Amino acid sequence: SLLAATFILSLIMFECYHYLVGSTAYEDFLEVDKGIGGMVPLNVNITFPSLQCEDVNLDLMDATGYTQTGMETDLYKNPTDSAGNTMFKGHYNYVPHLFNPDGTPAPYEPRKDPSSSQFCGKCFIESADKSVQHHIDVHHKDACCNSCEAVMAMYDKHKLPRPPKAEVEQCIHEMFKYSTGCNIQGTVYLQKVKGNFHFAPGKTLDDMGIHIGGGGGGHVHMFQRGTPFNVSHTILHMSFGNHTVQRINKRGVKYPLDGWKMVVDPDRMAMVKYFLKIVPTQYQVSNQMSESSYEFSVQEHHVQFDNTVKHLTPGIFFVFDFYPIRIHHNFKRQPLSQFCVRVACLVGGLFVVSGLLDRLLYWLPATVASLKARVRPTPTPAVT
């Protein structure tokens, strides 16, 4: 009885664990992707420890002929040291966005855009002192400081201690000049067709009829041969789709390029290609509304070459394509009543089985002893 009770308790704990974890609540199935068109967000965070921000450009091209060069919308560039640590510790007051969080087109605000002639930069960074911050909001709300020197001069004028340049947005371009690396993070919007996006040196010349890395609408990068362009990089994060979607998977949600690091010989250049296969994915948790996102697989290929090679362009190329199928990941935990019935059936069944075993163990020795008694020979009386 003690052994049976221990076994029953162990199985109940096992069932409770699987119910709480939900290991049996996952359901996966495939269907043809019926989605038509639309823009797909690409979330990227990549660090180049050996390239300055002014030397790195992000370009996009796809099979429809859609091309964007020198992309800056929805992207943050932050100078880094040789170890990849970001140098700008302040707050970006404005980065142009294509879309609002709700998917509607975002309005352009030229007074907040540092690249605009109408730019009006803040003269003071946010202060932890509430009285000082209140004074700034009341008396200097409309003041414009469009350079690092102008911000420092405003602090000197009001006899305030100068803030660290690493916290002043207008000083970020000054940091670009003496930094050794660059971190680029943000969101890029792709059309749902085959194409590529890449980080490559110099400026681009469109309509040259030259294709790089697949896709359509080619262009060629022009840069001075012999100029070092070390594409060593660390991909901190890369994903497709809305990053706020709750992603579920029985085997765990994985981002295959997160943490990927490549180091190139300082005396050589390299062309690195990542071939991405993107799969539309639908997630649904219990009775909540299902949400769409994307998962992807990747294959990597690279070649290093000397500065004398002329037919290869150094850079990092991400060649992507979309699968015509959609994966559904559903998570629906069984009702508590069903779980209770399952446990009751388990306990009842074990009680019946343990009773049968108990009777069998009691009956078997008695039967064996009875059989032995029947076949035991009768003793022969002794003859006198």
Topology, please?
Blueprint lengths: L1 H20 L4 E7 L6 E10 L8 E6 L4 E2 L6 E6 L49 H10 L8 H10 L14 H7 L2 E11 L3 E6 L2 E4 L12 E4 L10 E8 L19 E3 L6 E17 L5 E15 L9 E8 L2 E7 L4 H40 L9
Structure description:
This protein has about 375 residues and is α+β, with helices and mostly antiparallel strands. It is built from five helices and 15 strands. It has helices spanning about 1-20, 130-140, 150-155, 170-180, 335-375; strands spanning about 25-30, 40-50, 55-60, 65-70, 75-80, 180-190, 195-200, 205, 220, 235-240, 260, 270-285, 290-305, 315-320, 325-330. Strand 12 (about 270-285) and strand 13 form a beta hairpin.
Number of beta-strand segments: 15
Rg from alpha-carbon coordinates: 34 Å
Q: Write down the overall geometry.
A: elongated
Strand percentage, roughly?
25-35%
Main sheet properties: 8 strands, mixed
Figure out the total of helices.
5
Q: In terms of per-residue confidence, which ranges show pLDDT below 50 for 5 or more consecutive residues?
A: 206-219
- From the N-terminal CA to the C-terminal CA, the straight-line distance is 57 Å
Along the chain, the helix and strand elements come as HEEEEEHHHEEEEEEEEEEH
Q: Structural class, judged by helices and strands? A: alpha+beta
